[in-house]
Each structure stands twice: as C-alpha cells, then as structure tokens.
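This section describes the prediction task in plain terms. A model, or a person checking by hand, is given the sequence of a single protein chain and must write out its three-dimensional structure as a string of tokens. No templates, partner chains or ligands are provided. The sample shown here is typical of the held-out split.
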Amino acid sequence: MGARPDVVAALPAEPGTYRFRDEAGRVLYVGRAGDLRRRVASYWGALRDRPRLRRMVPQVVAVEALVCASEHEAAWVERNLLERRLPRWNRARGGLEIPTYLRLTTSPRSPGLEAVHLPSSGPDVVCFGPYLGGGQARLAVSALHRVHPLAYAGRTLSGSEREMARLRGVDHARLPDLVDAVSAVLHREPAAVAAVRADLLARRDAAVAHEQFEVAARLQEELAAVDWVVAPQRVTVDGGGDLALSGWSDGVLVSFRVRAGRLDGWEQQVCDRPAAPVTCPDAWEPFVRRNAELAAVLLRLPVRDPAVR
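The expected answer:
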C-alpha cells in the first residue's frame, strides 16, 4: 500500500468509531476500534491477504473519527450508524454483536442473574443494559456468580446446589447482601467493580501459580467481560428521548442526532462560527466538544488530494 497519511498520526490512541469517505463525499466504511490510531494505520499496512481492503483503501480521501468513552460505546455508535445505513464496504447492517440484557431476579425462591435478549419487568426483576454481545454478557454473568453466588441463596435448591452453597458459605440469610453486591457492580459503582476485579485477578493469578492455565484463561475472559459490561456508554439508552446535538471548533460544525436514546446520526461541515452559541446538555458536552475539536484537525489532513487519481 501507499505511505501512511498524516491524518493517522492526528488520531488519538483511544477507543472510538471511524469512517472513510471517497472523493464524492460518500461514506465507504464505518468501523470501530479500541485504539483509533493503531486501527486506522493498519489500513495502510500490509493487506496481502485482504483483497477487499486493498480495493477500498485507494478510494479513501478523508478519515473522520469520534472518540468514545469506551470500546463498548464505540461499538454501539458503529452499530447504530450501520443500522441506519450500510456503506458499500461494510458487510452486515448493525454489526455482528447481538444486543443483550442482564436480568437480575431477586425472588427469595429462585434468585439469579442471566443474560436475555429482551428486557422484562416484575416485582422481583431488574434488567440492566442493553449491552452488545451475548457471549460477553454470559461471561460476565459467570464472573459475577463466581464472586457473588446469588443463585445459591435461594430456597429451592437441588441437593447438589445445597452442597455447593455449603462449600461456598452461602445461605438464604445472605440474599439481600448478594443482591446489593451484584446490583452495585451493574450500576458501575467504582468500589463494587474494583472488588470484583480484584477477586477475579487473585483467582487468575492463583490458577497460573498452580499451572492451571485453562482456568486462568477462562478467568481472564470473565474479567474482560466484566470490564465490557461496566464500561461507560451513553449512546444507547433504553427509554431515552430525542436530541439534536452540535458543537463547533475552528471552522467545523459537528452535529449528532439521538433518536429514542440512540445516537444514530453524525454529520460535519465546514462553516463560520454560528451566530448563536452552540449548546448541548451538560452530560453530552465533553463528548461533543472533544469530537468537534478532533473533526477540525482531521479535516485539514486529507488522505490524498481528491484531484489526484
């Protein structure tokens, strides 16, 4: 491929969503990354075994990017944009991960936590989410049950479950504390998340010390899954409203559309400073401001001159 364009160095090494445009301004591709700079740079690396990308990259004239609070948030932005419109070089509308919820059942008879595809409600049910990725959600459930064995505090246990409860030191009297502990993690309370991470890390390191490498690998997967579900993300919220967000920086106006709690529109254009101040809700201000500033930088660093073919 050709030399790596200057725009790559201007991208932050942070999670985010990116898109490529051609000389007609059409979006060619939308993607997401845990490290925007590294991921976008890879398109100008060795692509011998990726003929599809080798055909796309020469058409890229401009790179646009959004910095997100987490890779999970970036994944939701990517999904929402692809559900609205599928660019030529993307393969699947909406991406590959499936939206999932974690259902916490607090019933004294059969408490528990499980991954479900649709939220539900009831006197003994609380649903958290949505999250992207059923596999990640199920791993997070496994991790939380490992640390806070809520299901063993129910009244309707089988014989083997009662024995597991005894070995884990769990009885029905602990149910309120276990419910509170799991809820605190899923509400992203820092101390509760830190305690679960510390427990999983200690178990993983002990498994490595005893050369139980498969167990250690499983614990590492569960740790990553907990990080995924507790990662901050504001771009997809059930029950959310509609918003029109915009920010201006150095001659570039960036606009976002939120519909029913989902950010699914992202546009930018060159313009003079708006006559009226550009405002948005305080919760969105850092996201909008940061990405308006990034857009102004990237716009001045085209991948190549559109007039050069």
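For orientation: The beta strands are 16-21, 27-33, 62-67, 99-105, 112-116, 125-132, 243-249, 252-259, 262-270.
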